[in-house]
Write the structure tokens for this entry.
Amino acid sequence: MRIAVVGGTGTAGSRVAALADEQGHDVVVMARSAGVNLVTGEGLVEALDGADVAIDASSPTPPDASMSRFDAVVRSGRNLVEACVEAEVRRLVLLSIANIEKPDFDAFSYYVAKRDQEEAVRDSGLEVSVVRSAQWFEFAEHSSAVDYAEDRVTVQDWYVQPIAVASVAEVLVREATRRRARDATIAGPEAVRLPELVRRLLLARHDPRPVVAVDAPLPGFANGALLAPAGAEILGPGVAGWIAGRTGAGAPRAAPLRAAPSNLPGTGDGGTSGPLPEPPGTPARAKGPRMPVPTSLEEFVIRWDAFRAGIGFEEITDTLAIEPHACDGASLAMRMPLAARLRQAGGMFAATALFGAADVTGTFLAMQVVEPGHFPLAAQSSLNFIDNSRVGPAIATARIVRAGRTIVVASVDVADAGGKVLATSTFTYVPMPSAGRDREGEGRAQEAAPGTQA
Ligand SMILES: NC(=O)c1ccc[n+]([C@@H]2O[C@H](COP(=O)([O-])OP(=O)(O)OC[C@H]3O[C@@H](n4cnc5c(N)ncnc54)[C@H](OP(=O)(O)O)[C@@H]3O)[C@@H](O)[C@H]2O)c1
């Protein structure tokens, strides 16, 4: 089935695209970074050409300050419906939000815009499925309701019944591919106040910052109006399971995965540890990496050197002084010193340096799983600065969340040498055929690392 994923590079959309791809569907990613603009309509009909189903997991951004978020969402919803009709797409699946119809939210313009979007979809004459989701657990990590400052975390007092975005993606693909279209309302198994969820997350990460709860902008966010409505489908994990998944092996760690022998460049921690256990909630691994993630530091270093030279990353990686740190066949860790040029005025890591470490580590890992002759072009990233530190080096640990033919998603967390989490991030890559120069580099990489698969 040909599935167009609108907003296919976003938090939900990237998981939808990867899952549909894994299930063998022909996936088209629609986003501005893929040349499609929902607000202006640019490229919409063309991208939908031949699609059986469109899944709208977008969150449209206004082009400039002259347009409100409300107008951007409304206009995008209508443009998408018109384009689906014109391109003769059979079914449209819309990701919406549970409970938005309640009068509690009449004064919240984003929810009013989502109501309009639902209405436009229902009036389209297409086969329609509206999937209304409760707030996501990921809301605790980066959302407008949570503010991570250096000395405290300020959290609006929302009362929610959160669901993991991975479960949301599964439902969207399920509804897109089932025989008859129908609506669905989904939520997680436990109600929790957002400040409490953040407090438990910080505790699990050994993060000492206090959580300061503040009023939510409307009483409806706090009074239970957002909890799962009657008849909602309840999907795990619960609070403890989700936190374990975010703070287990996938989370930043100071200890090396498999430490570097001291005779290799850029290493010297000594000691070894075996492969990491899979924590509860760890996302499904790739169907089979095209080029397995290295299991030894020696192989990691050889591939890293070839990658830098082949892709022309030497200047950036020299500036960051980033180098292989550890690997275990599933994840990779790179280390970046707290060099003077990488510090901000307070002597801590500059934000750009932390982003750079996450980006380079994620890109290198993604390179291991894309088809030979392809380069993982970053289409979207989201990075949440959790904390900062004067304790170097920083360790960036990357894991593949999904590895499909058309999209690769990696999560990269950065910690200081003491294991304190500094930043968490997600990168979405689109594998693109490499330029000649890159192929040359890849060829060298494979030559230099006998035993790796072509
Ligand atoms: N967060 C929650 O708890 C929650 C709960 C229920 C439902 N939802 C709904 O889930 C949906 C997705 O949210 P999300 O957090 O996954 O969004 P997100 O991470 O911000 O991703 C937004 C996606 O939309 C694309 N996009 C933005 N502006 C665009 C434009 N003008 N034209 C084309 N594409 C555009 C982005 O790609 P480019 O930047 O490349 O264009 C990206 O792929 C939203 O509709 C939200 O209401 C969220």
Observations:
- The radius of gyration is 22 Å.
- The longest helix spans residues 351-369.
- The domain at 297-448 is CATH 3.10.129.10 (Thiol Ester Dehydrase; Chain A).
